[in-house]
Structures are given as C-alpha cells and as structure tokens.
Amino acid sequence: MNEPILARRDGAVQVLSFNNPAARNALTSEVYEALPAALAEAGRDPEVGAIVLTGVGGAFCAGGDLNRLAQRRALTPPERRAGIESLHDMIRAIRDCSKPVIAAVEGAAAGAGLSIALACDMLAAARNASFSVAYIKVGLSPDGGATAFLSGLVSRQLLTELCLTGRPVTGERMHALGVANRLAEPGSALTEAIAMAQSLAAGPERAIARIKRLCRQAGENTLEAQLDLEAQYMTESLGDDESAEGIAAFFGKRPADFSALRRVSPVDSH
C-alpha cells in the first residue's frame, strides 16, 4: 500500500504530498491520521521553517472517496459524525500548525480538497487549476470548513452560487478574487509555493507563529479582543531574542540571521 502522505525536504521547506493519484488524491482514513502527524513532526523540527502541501499525479485533492462515503450511509449518525470529525481534526491541524502552510494546487481541489487548500495560510495555484465546492453534485452539503473559509473571501451571493451549483472556478479566477496568493503556469504551482515557503522559512520562527495566529483571529475577534491579542504578542516579541537580532541587524545595516534562534519546541500558535 502506498504511503498516504509523501514527505521530502527542500532546504528549510517540508513538502507534504497527498499520494493517491489513481483516485486524484481522494481522502482516506489513513490521510486523516498521516497528515496531522506529519504537520506535528514538521512543527517540532527546528530545521523546518515552512511547509508546502500538494498532491502527486497532477491533482491536489478530489475530496472524499465516494466509495467510502457510500458505505457510511449504512452507519449510525454518531458513526457518520465521527468520520467527519476526523476530517475536521485534519483541518484544525493545518490551522494550528505553528509554521506557515502553503498549498500548491494543480488540477482539482474539489469538495474537502477545496477546504484543505483554503485552510492553508497561503495558496499558489496553477492558472488552469479547478476549485469546486462539489458536494451538491452528489446530494451532499459542504464540510471541512469550506463555507467558513469562503465566507471570509467572497460575497454571500457568490458563496451561495458556488455551493448551490458546484461550478468549478479556475486558478486564474481564484487569484483575481484574492484567494490565491500566487498564480503559476500549469505545472509550476509547486515551484512557486516552494519559493514562497523558502522566503518565509528564513524569517523569525516565533514571530511568524504569532503573526499567523493574529491573522487567523482577525476576522473572528472584536476589535478589543484583537487589540488584547496584539498587545500580548507584542509584549512577548519584544522580550524574544528574535527581536534583539532583528533590531541589531537593522541598526547594523545587515540582513537579520534568525537561523541560530530556532528551537526544538516552537511557540504554540493555538
């Protein structure tokens, strides 16, 4: 049996790939266990500065395996819910990873595959990639946070259209909407994502974790709650040796070198 997630290093970037190409990287229970474990391992590794998530074989992820979903119809509602929570735990693992996670999307990101791509902190998409909230086509409703992520990116009217029609949207359109950070020519999304990740990986690890949390919370917090969180993290950052290096580098008119300041147990971004 193939490993559900392939892992390789490209400098300070950990590249994690869905590995089910025969089914366009459709999700399985093995993926639900393997991806959070791989993210946790990368989060603990001081040599890893950023993570890229992609798929092998020309597709990102086609979402849930319909054969398995059909079998779940025979389960009790609590048993069905447990399977969905496995997906949601994987989404939370992407969100809670202290290091930046960048999606590199070629081919299809459909259903829960779209949710996974949107759960990442940033996204590089091939111009001809296909993003779709495909659930309606098989009589299902979205999960994996698809509606939560899209609601912060597009109007309610467009969100409703995407969910009720399941119509695919190209990478070019997602870039125009501001959903994709980088637009790449077909076959180049991974290269673009790794370049983004390499740049981030050279930065201050703990400051990056704090910024990631601030950006995640900004759309949910009240102004007062966000001000409190900013004050907490700025207080921590001012006492961190990362800021000592950054400020010294600024006054010394030299590039900051944060590499020696990485730790085995980075700051928790929860």
TrEMBL record:
<dbReference type="Pfam" id="PF00378">
    <property type="entry name" value="ECH_1"/>
</dbReference>
<dbReference type="InterPro" id="IPR018376">
    <property type="entry name" value="Enoyl-CoA_hyd/isom_CS"/>
</dbReference>
<dbReference type="InterPro" id="IPR001753">
    <property type="entry name" value="Enoyl-CoA_hydra/iso"/>
</dbReference>
<dbReference type="InterPro" id="IPR014748">
    <property type="entry name" value="Enoyl-CoA_hydra_C"/>
</dbReference>
<keyword id="KW-0456">Lyase</keyword>
<dbReference type="GO" id="GO:0004300">
    <property type="term" value="F:enoyl-CoA hydratase activity"/>
</dbReference>
<comment type="similarity">
    <text>Belongs to the enoyl-CoA hydratase/isomerase family.</text>
</comment>
<dbReference type="InterPro" id="IPR029045">
    <property type="entry name" value="ClpP/crotonase-like_dom_sf"/>
</dbReference>
<protein>
    <submittedName>
        <fullName>Enoyl-CoA hydratase</fullName>
        <ecNumber>4.2.1.17</ecNumber>
    </submittedName>
</protein>
